Amino acid sequence: MFASASSLSGANITVNFLRALVIDKKIVLQGIADSSAIVEKAVVLAQKAYPDYKVESAISVVQDFKTYK
Questions:
Q1: Helix (H, G, I), strand (E, B) or coil at 6
Q2: What is the DSSP letter of 64?
Q3: Cα distances (angstroms) measured from residue 52 to each of 6, 26, 31, 49
Q4: CA-CA distances (angstroms) from residue 46 to 49, 61, 62, 65?
Q5: The pLDDT of residue 13
Q6: Which among 53, 48, 44, 4 is positioned nearest to 24, based on CA atoms?
Q7: Distance between CA atoms of 59 and 67, rounded to whole angstroms?
Q8: Contact 44, 59 (CB under 8 A)
Q9: Phi/psi zone of residue 4: left (φ > 0), alpha (ψ -120 to 50 degrees), beta?
């Protein structure tokens, strides 16, 4: 199952093109962030929201990423 959103905003973090792959009791976060600190915060937020699931990150860290409209 996939959950998707264009961005995750909260606690002053943004993960662009966020997707969450959920298999059994495991959540894998996918997307693009501009620092590893943001990735760690996203994982912590997901763990708090879903304490019964194991949360892993496959979020790419890209410096100077810009979203274009």
A1: coil
A2: T
A3: 25, 9, 22, 9
A4: 5, 18, 21, 23
A5: 80
A6: 53
A7: 16
A8: no
A9: beta
Left if phi > 0, otherwise alpha if psi is -120 to 50, otherwise beta: which for 40?
Answer: alpha
Q: What is the pLDDT of residues 26-59, one digit of tens each?
A: 999 999 998 899 999 999 999 999 999 999 999 9
Helix (H) or strand (E) holding 26: strand 26-33
Centroid of chain to Cα 48: 13
In 3D space, the residue among 23, 20, 25, 21 whose CA is nearest the CA of residue 8 turns out to be 20
pLDDT on residue 66? 66
Specify which residues 27 forms β-bridges with: 22, 55
